[in-house]
Write a structure and sequence with these properties.
The complex is a heterodimer of chains A (308) and B (327). By secondary structure, chain A is an alpha/beta fold. Chain A has helices spanning 46-53, 79-85, 105-115, 120-133, 139-144, 152-164, 182-195, 208-214, 232-237, 242-249, 284-288, and strands at residues 4-15, 18-30, 35-39, 62-69, 72-73, 90-93, 170-174, 200-205, 217-222, 225-231, 294-295, 301-302. Chain B has 327 residues and is mostly helical. The chains are: A alpha/beta (308), B mainly alpha (327).
Chain lengths: 308, 327
């Protein structure tokens, strides 16, 4: 059985300009211990999708569809039941290495370990062990530090440690390599791979290479929709969607050719395919008709009229 | 902890406070001397007479107002350093002792209302921000916009009209005539002015606290705390509240100093024998030494309030603490 199964998920936010759909009909499955990379530009709906899984969206956001976690629909759970799952089963590695600036790292770790059910004594004993597991050589100096005294890589390790305080079965990592130098980026990717040996990972990023190193499957989002989904090697060797191809050609190793134009605002989506204005091979049909997600075989899916 | 902040920081704050003080009393001195009219002319006008120029001149000579301005200024400065703040024209008494007595009564109003308004403003603001978008939030926001839009003396009159005139529960003020420390009487007289002062300063603190809370709630670490399954009350009291109360702290201490100026209206409405009422009468009478003294005390209190906030801040915020240590 799949660990988590997202079925035609739609997330709509009410705004002054009318309702805005940030996530549109997304279908995704993630097996036990599977690592999936979710790739997309800012505003493509990746973070909204993760927050929807944790049910941490603003209260007026409307979620339709189903998010089945071990067969239970998360969208139908009572708030207290949902709260019991957060951290314990579904853990988030938040964006921007978010730590409370007024509390020492140790205090925040203790609080989280206590939340995970350890007694005060056990938590204090467990803390250095947890920090060592994310690469701290001198855990005591880490626990005494305030977040602003830690480097970016150190903060990232600490938020990873915080999410591992419980033993969740799914880790949602929201752009953990954002803003890190290449050395730290590589270290964090290695660390994430090491600590999630027994866990499923949803790795959100706009860093294709990082996703390729860490994940077995890739999902690409564009303007709120899934545009391509497939095994990592298939996607890298045989990218189907023009957007995926564009992203790959934009990599330094493959020519650094940027995709021209910018993604459409969610308030003014074009008719037809959402990518057509930037697509080098746009056809007449692409301007008129919105493409569904086609199954091209070999567990590879693509939202493009080329694959009817 | 204090040592940890660093003596250099404290010294620097202290000197910048001193500089602000000197600048402020200098400005006050020259501004007061550029006011039109003078004590003698005003006094005689009150009984319907024009002051003969010789009388005005001899009065000015007697109090030293005929000296060249720089000389007057120097005399004033050396006087302050020696603890001699001059004598009031109106009362003939040393300015310092006059102010000291009135300041006491003003603080009797100011301290409770500062505490009350800080508590209420922070509490209501936090509640409103936490429940952003709810009916409670909308109700609080609209009520406090209304409260803040009405001038302080109007609330004073409204309070007098309802509680003293209509219901006869509280005295009409006039504590001026019987200042004593008898608790029950003091309480009955102080209640309305304290509440009015509180009412006027709650909205400012409330807005700031509400906004600060909204900012904090948008932070990623609050989302992260929720994602760890912490209870809402833990998130509010351990994470959201301490972080959002920080900017409000400085504002509240400054507010306290502002209230000193605001008390001019309140003390006039309630005939309260404090510094505000003294300021009002000193302004009316062109009592320059007294006005100088009052403004000096205002400045001093503002600077002390600022200094307190500056010294408290690093104790609460570790980021500021490291920045100071790094300097």
């Amino acid at each position: 059985m799949e660990l988590i199964e997202i079925k035609s998920l739609k997330v709509t936010f009410p705004t002054e300009a009318g309702p805005v759909r940030a996530v549109d009909c997304v279908d995704l499955q993630l097996g036990v211990r599977e690592k999936l990379g979710l790739i997309g530009e800012t505003g493509s709906g990746k973070s909204v999708l993760t927050h929807a899984i944790l049910r941490l969206l603003q209260p007026d956001a409307l979620c339709e569809g189903e998010i089945l976690y071990q067969g239970r629909n998360l969208l139908g759970l009572a708030p207290t039941e949902m709260r019991r799952l957060r951290g314990r089963e579904l853990a988030l590695i938040p964006q921007n290495r978010a730590l409370n600036p007024l509390q020492t790292v140790g205090k925040q770790l203790l609080e989280t370990l206590r939340q995970a059910g350890y007694s005060k004594k056990e938590a204090a004993a467990k803390m250095p062990e947890l920090l060592r597991s994310v690469g701290a050589i001198d855990p005591d100096s880490w626990t005494k530090a305030y977040p602003h005294e830690c480097s970016g890589g150190m903060c990232e390790r600490i938020v990873i440690a915080l999410s591992l305080a419980f033993s969740p079965s799914l880790l949602l990592a929201d752009e953990p390599t954002k803003g890190l130098d290449s050395l730290n980026r590589a270290r964090i990717i290695t660390l994430l791979g090491a600590v999630t040996r027994n866990q499923a990972l949803l790795f959100i990023t706009h860093d294709l290479e990082a996703a390729a190193m860490l994940c077995t499957r890739l999902a690409l989002m564009y303007a709120g929709e899934l545009v391509e989904l497939g095994d990592k090697d298939t996607v890298f060797e045989n990218p189907l969607h023009p957007y995926t191809r564009g992203l790959l050609f934009a990599l330094p190793a493959r020519g650094m050719q940027p995709i021209l134009g910018r993604s459409p605002p969610l308030t003014a989506l074009p008719d037809g395919c959402r990518f057509h204005s930037r697509c080098p091979g746009a056809m007449a049909r692409c301007r008129r008709q919105h493409p569904p997600l086609f199954d091209t075989g070999n567990r590879h899916f693509c939202r493009c009229w080329l694959y009817v | 902890m204090v040592l940890e902040i660093g003596n250099r920081y404290i010294l620097r704050r202290f000197f910048s406070g001193l500089l602000a003080f000197l600048l402020s009393i200098t400005l006050t001195f020259f501004l007061l001397r550029s006011l039109p009219g003078d004590y003698m002319t005003d006094l005689l006008l009150e009984i319907g007479r024009y002051a003969p120029p010789e009388l005005v001149a001899s009065f000015k000579h007697e109090v030293g107002l005929d000296l060249p301005l720089p000389k007057q200024y120097l005399l004033y400065l050396t006087g302050i350093l020696k603890g001699n703040w001059g004598h009031s024209f109106e009362y003939g008494l040393p300015v310092f002792s006059l102010i000291r007595e009135k300041l006491y009564w003003t603080l009797v109003l100011l301290l409770p209302s500062t505490l009350l308004s800080a508590g209420l403003g922070i509490g209501l603001g936090a509640c409103s921000g936490w429940k952003n978008g709810s009916k409670t939030d909308a109700f609080l926001l609209h009520s406090l916009v209304f409260v803040g839009a009405v001038p302080s003396y109007c609330w004073g009159f409204a309070g007098l009209f309802i509680f003293s005139f209509r219901l006869g529960l509280l005295p009409f003020g006039g504590y001026v005539s019987l200042p004593s420390t008898e608790p029950a009487g003091l309480f009955r007289h102080a209640l309305l002015p304290v509440l009015t002062l509180t009412l006027c300063s709650v909205p400012g603190i409330y807005y700031l606290m509400r906004n600060s809370m909204l900012d904090t709630l948008g932070e990623d670490y609050i989302l992260a705390a929720r994602a760890r399954g912490f209870s809402e009350s833990r998130i509010l009291f351990q994470h959201a509240l301490p972080n959002s109360v920080l900017p409000v702290l400085t504002m509240t201490s400054l507010h306290c100093a502002h209230m000193l100026a605001g008390s001019v209206f309140i003390e006039t409405v309630f005939a309260w024998p404090g510094l505000g009422l003294l300021t009002f009468s000193a302004l009316e009478a062109h009592d320059l030494p007294l006005l100088q003294g009052i403004f000096l005390v205002d400045t001093l209190l503002t600077i002390i309030a600022n200094l307190t906030a500056d010294l408290l801040y690093p104790l609460i915020d570790p980021r500021i603490r490291s920045r100071i240590r790094g300097e």
